[in-house]
Amino acid sequence: MDKLRLFAGIILFGSIWGFAECIIGQGFDNLGIHSGTIMTGFFAVGLMMMSRVFYKQRGMQLGMGLVAGTLRFFNPFGGCVICSAIAIAAEGAIFELIWYKLSLDLKELKTNPMKLSMGVISAYCCFVGGYIVTQILTPLTSAAGFYFQNLVVFMPQILSRGLLAALIGGVTVPAVLVLRNIDITSIKDKIYYPVTAVVTLLCWTTVIATRILVMGI
Amino acid sequence: MGKEKIIPIIAIAILLIGTFSSIYVYATQVNTDTISINGESYTVDDIFSIAEPRSFESLNFSGVALDDLILKTYNDCASCHEYTITGEDGYQKTVTWNDMKNGLLTKDGRAVFSDLPKAFRIRDVVKIEAV
Question: Which residue of A36, A104, B58, B99 has the fewest C-beta atoms within 10 A of its own C-beta?
């Protein structure tokens, strides 16, 4: 695949993911719904799976995580900005590791149990892994430092919260795999690049404009 | 064993881990109206009558100063220790004495630090312990 086309895809899907984390995730939080599991099980795994199905390239999800994590830094809302950004980037890397050994045409995922299982594994590992990575790295960015005991004590909660993400992922991945026959390379350049540019720009301007409106900076 | 067998087994194992963790979390949940500070139990009203008030206007939080709370309740050298603050759900963070000087405890039991990331905000505090 053309590298420029792939790069545009990474920026596009990473931006949609970041936008979802910043705007839709906050919407869930405002409704009193714990957004973390939904964001991972549905949006993160769904978008990364979609990019895997459309582009059939390794490394793309890692890039998406970095783009989405960067966009999360611009978000004025929600909980810990740095924790979320770290967790998002980690989720991209973890997804990449999980799917590394699977073929790019995903021929292993023919049966429903296999599709469902990969959804469960991906969402659970991304959520739990992202949570653990951020619990380790976030304290290191401050003077307080990281204490292993604090993580160990909270592990049952993390493992428990991942269950909902796993169940959502078990539905998301089979649903996305319905789109596996879409061939992104068949889209003409004169349509592909303007569409990716406009959607990417919309995601970033919405998040940054929201920050300016809310925080005045 | 092929991927067709291993992957569903891993998925089932994950679902079992999640389920048993949820059962464990539910069974060990702590519900208390008091906060244990270095082994002594205090109600929120006790705490607010003991310690000096503190507010972070930019963060929109007010409560009592965590360092003052420790000074008034702890007979040992307060500044010689770090402090582990634990929430009702088991979430805990260990902070330095300098962080405690920039920390407060709100009326609804939330510990907030002005100089630390939001990950260090602990809801429904049940225990503060010198380590």
Answer: B58
